[in-house]
Every structure is written in structure tokens, then in C-alpha cells.
């Protein structure tokens, strides 16, 4: 065992010495691997960061949450012209489901106000604000955290009272350092009293942060916009009780809606039941495909780097033919010569890989500075992958030159070197 360790140590020392003596060649060789590893790990890190950002945006909602509307989250077999004829879900359907559908932990009616709204406090105006017009139960569906104040209650929601909950950024824009609670602002041309301010969440790459949102009672918005199709985008958001089978819950929900809309057997649904879990699976599928495409494209860069290392190793064997002959004539075993060149190729490749990982880390820090709260993630798993891939590339690239070196005849090698 000690003999093998000594052989490994001597092989390692020979490899390091060879790399030091040919610094320019070493640099040019590892450049290809550096670019290849950078490409692959940059793609993996970017996709991981993208996935983390999207899942972070959805984390406030439970994966079992169901959204009923006339639109579908993902692809659909229903033709577009037919989907456009679907009616919007109604407030009455929300009330009916609330009374009759079992196993509901919370159910809320929500309106999406198109184009955002303008909020005004004295001389300060915020335009294009994302408004969530919801019923009071939405507080039990989404994980709200308040910096100040509270969410609106059932009497306020049913009456469509002029109350509003502000996201952190909106509150700062309108009020600065002032306490907004109890202040009156204008939204939809009407007065609304601020009753709550949400804690700062941070921006997502794709928007959707609660910092730039406000929430008002759905009936408050309904009085302004009505329920004309195309002006608002109504939806019913449901959260089933813990432990309830989702498939059974959705089947009961579908049956209730079909009954309410008098849809005959054999006719298609005129609504979509969207699951957040299904959307999360869809995102996983997309990011998985992006990973594969990125790795395949980046693999070509790594292939070029591998050919570069193989070429340099063949040159190295040619230059050291005489030295190999001398080593073998002095009793060096074939496996010592083999390990010597293999170590050189692997070390060269791993150094290139580590440089590539360092560049990815550097780029991720710089990129994070320019994308606000979106954070590029270089995970330990990706670092491990980068290191292993570079080592494997070195092993594959160096195996043939190392074998050819180990099989040289000592006499012929010395004579060729001379």
C-alpha cells in the first residue's frame, strides 16, 4: 500500500513539475476547459437561479391551492376560439361554492385589474400599481406578513368598504417616512383608508412582488369596474383542507361548477381548474429542458477543451520520450509512466475547471448587483459537478497519450530522444 502511495506522490510531483516548466502551453491548454466548464456551470447556475426565483414567488401559496378561471395556466387541448367564448367565473359562483363545496379550508373571489391603477396622496402619485381586489378570505390563503396594520375583515369585504392594504414600496413612494395607517388616498377615483402595510418582500426577476401591489375588497373594485367580460379577470381561489385528496377535491369542484352552469354530459367544461402543483411541475419540466439544451450546447466547448488537452499531452509525450526511456531503463514501471501523464492531464483539466468555476462565481456576484433582489446561485452541487466533469475530461483526454507513453520501449525511446 505504501509503495502505491509513493508511486502516486512521485507521479503527482512529476506532473506538477511538467506543468510549471511549460506555463504558456499549460495556460493555453486549460483555457479550453475553463471556457467549457464556465459554459456548463453558468447554464446550470442560471437555470437554478431562475427556478429558485419562480418557486420563491409561489412560496406564499400552498401547492394544493386551486385557481378557477376561464384561462389555463399551461397548454390546453381546447381550441383558442372556443376558450375565448368561455364566461368569466362570477361572485355568485364563489358564494355557492363557499356554501356547498366540502373540505374547503379557505375560498376567495379575486379580480385582476388590467393596466394597474393610479394611487394619489396629496401631491404624490403612483401609477401602474398592481391591484389585487380580493375577498377577506384571501388572507387565509396567502401568507401575508404585516409591517403595520391589518388585512380587511369580512364586514369590510362584503360592504366593499373603502379600505386598502399597501405593499412596502407603494407605501414608501406615497408616504415616505410618515405612518400611512389611517391616511386617505385616492384609487379608482375614490377615497380609501390605509389599514395595513405589508412587510418588504424584495423584487422578483419576473415581477409579481407584493412590494408593488395593493389589496382592496373585491366588492370595492366591482362597484367601479362591474363584471363586464374583458375589463377584469375574475377568479376563484380555493385552498383545500390538509389531508384532503386533491383529485377527489377537484372532481367535486368540477361537478359543482358543471351543475351551476348546467353543462350537459359529454360537453366540455367552460372553465379551467388550475393547480399550483401542476404549474410547479410545468416549471420543473421547462427548467429541466433548459438544463439539457444548455449542457448539450456547452458540451461542444468542453469537447474542444478536451481535444486541446489531448493534443498537448501527445506533444508532452513526444518531448519527453528520452526522459521516459531513461526512467524505464532505471526500473520505472509502466503504471508509473501511465499515472504520471494521467495526473498531468487531470491536474491540467481540474485547474481549468476551477478557473471556470471562479469566473462563474465572479459573474454571478456582478450579475446579482445589476438585477436588484434577483440572486444568481452557484450551489455546492454545481461546484461538485464542475470539478468532477473537468476531472473526467482530463482523464479521457489523457488516457491515450498516457498509454502510448507507458508502452514505449526504453532503448527506442532513448534513441528517438537523442
Described by the principal axes of the CA atoms, the overall outline is elongated
Number of domains: 2
What is the makeup of the main sheet?
6 strands, mixed, barrel
Question: How widely separated are the two ends?
Answer: 36 Å
Q: Poorly predicted ranges (pLDDT <50, ≥5 residues)?
A: none
How large is the count of helical segments?
A: 14
Strand order of the largest sheet: 3-4-9-6-8-7
Pfam family, one: FtsX
Domain ABC3 transporter permease C-terminal: 295-410
Transmembrane segments: 27-47, 292-315, 336-363, 383-405
Membrane topology: Multi-pass membrane protein
Structural description of this entry:
It is a multi-pass membrane protein. Belongs to the ABC-4 integral membrane protein family. One of its GO terms (molecular function) is transmembrane transporter activity. Keywords: Cell membrane, Membrane, Transmembrane, Transmembrane helix. This protein is α+β, with helices and mostly antiparallel strands and 418 residues long. It folds into two domains: 2-57 and 282-417, no CATH class; 87-270, no CATH class. The protein has 14 helices and eleven strands. The protein has helices at residues 2-21, 23-58, 80-83, 91-100, 138-141, 154-159, 168-175, 218-225, 246-260, 276-319, 321-329, 334-370, 380-406, 410-417, and strands spanning 66-69, 104-112, 117-121, 124-134, 146-149, 163-166, 184-187, 190-198, 213-217, 235-240, 272-275. Helix 10 (276-319) crosses helix 12 and helix 10 packs parallel to helix 13. The model has no long low-confidence stretch (mean pLDDT 79).
Amino acid at each position: 500500500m505504501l509503495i502505491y502511495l509513493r508511486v502516486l506522490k512521485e507521479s503527482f510531483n512529476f506532473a506538477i513539475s511538467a506543468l510549471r516548466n511549460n506555463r504558456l502551453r499549460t495556460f493555453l491548454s486549460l483555457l479550453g476547459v475553463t471556457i467549457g466548464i464556465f459554459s456548463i456551470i453558468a447554464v446550470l447556475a442560471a437555470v437554478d437561479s431562475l427556478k429558485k426565483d419562480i418557486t420563491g414567488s409561489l412560496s406564499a401559496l400552498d401547492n394544493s391551492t386551486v385557481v378557477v378561471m376561464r384561462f389555463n395556466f399551461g397548454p390546453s387541448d381546447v381550441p383558442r376560439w372556443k376558450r375565448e367564448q368561455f364566461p368569466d367565473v362570477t361572485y355568485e359562483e364563489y358564494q355557492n361554492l363557499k356554501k356547498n363545496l366540502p373540505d374547503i379550508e379557505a375560498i376567495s373571489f379575486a379580480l385582476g385589474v388590467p393596466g394597474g391603477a393610479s394611487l394619489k396622496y396629496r401631491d404624490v402619485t403612483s401609477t401602474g400599481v398592481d391591484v389585487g381586489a380580493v375577498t377577506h378570505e384571501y388572507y387565509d390563503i396567502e401568507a401575508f406578513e404585516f409591517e403595520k396594520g391589518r388585512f380587511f375583515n369580512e364586514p369590510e369585504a362584503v360592504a366593499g368598504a373603502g379600505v386598502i392594504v399597501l405593499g412596502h414600496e407603494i407605501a414608501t413612494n406615497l408616504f415616505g417616512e410618515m405612518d400611512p395607517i389611517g391616511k386617505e388616498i385616492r384609487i379608482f377615483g375614490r377615497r380609501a383608508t390605509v389599514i395595513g402595510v405589508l412587510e418588504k418582500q424584495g423584487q422578483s426577476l419576473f415581477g409579481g412582488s407584493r412590494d408593488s401591489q395593493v389589496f382592496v375588497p373585491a366588492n370595492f373594485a366591482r362597484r367601479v369596474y362591474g363584471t363586464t367580460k374583458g375589463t377584469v379577470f375574475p377568479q376563484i381561489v380555493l385552498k383545500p383542507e390538509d389531508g384532503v385528496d386533491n383529485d377527489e377535491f377537484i372532481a367535486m369542484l368540477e361537478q359543482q361548477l358543471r351543475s351551476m352552469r348546467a353543462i350537459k354530459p359529454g360537453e366540455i367544461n367552460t372553465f379551467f381548474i388550475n393547480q399550483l402543483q401542476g404549474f410547479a411541475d410545468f416549471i420543473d419540466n421547462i427548467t429541466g429542458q433548459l438544463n439539457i439544451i444548455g449542457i448539450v450546447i456547452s458540451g461542444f466547448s468542453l469537447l474542444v477543451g478536451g481535444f486541446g488537452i489531448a493534443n498537448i499531452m501527445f506533444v508532452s509525450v513526444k518531448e519527453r520520450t528520452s526522459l521516459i526511456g531513461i526512467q524505464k531503463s532505471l526500473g520505472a514501471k509502466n503504471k508509473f509512466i501511465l499515472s504520471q501523464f494521467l495526473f498531468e492531464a487531470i491536474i491540467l483539466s481540474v485547474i481549468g475547471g476551477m478557473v471556470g468555476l471562479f469566473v462563474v462565481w465572479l459573474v454571478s456576484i456582478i450579475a446579482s448587483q445589476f438585477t436588484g433582489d434577483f440572486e444568481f446561485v452557484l450551489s455546492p452541487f454545481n461546484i461538485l459537478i464542475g470539478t468532477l466533469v473537468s476531472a473526467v475530461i482530463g482523464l479521457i483526454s489523457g488516457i491515450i497519450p498516457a498509454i502510448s507513453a507507458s508502452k514505449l520501449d526504453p532503448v527506442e525511446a532513448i534513441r528517438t530522444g537523442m
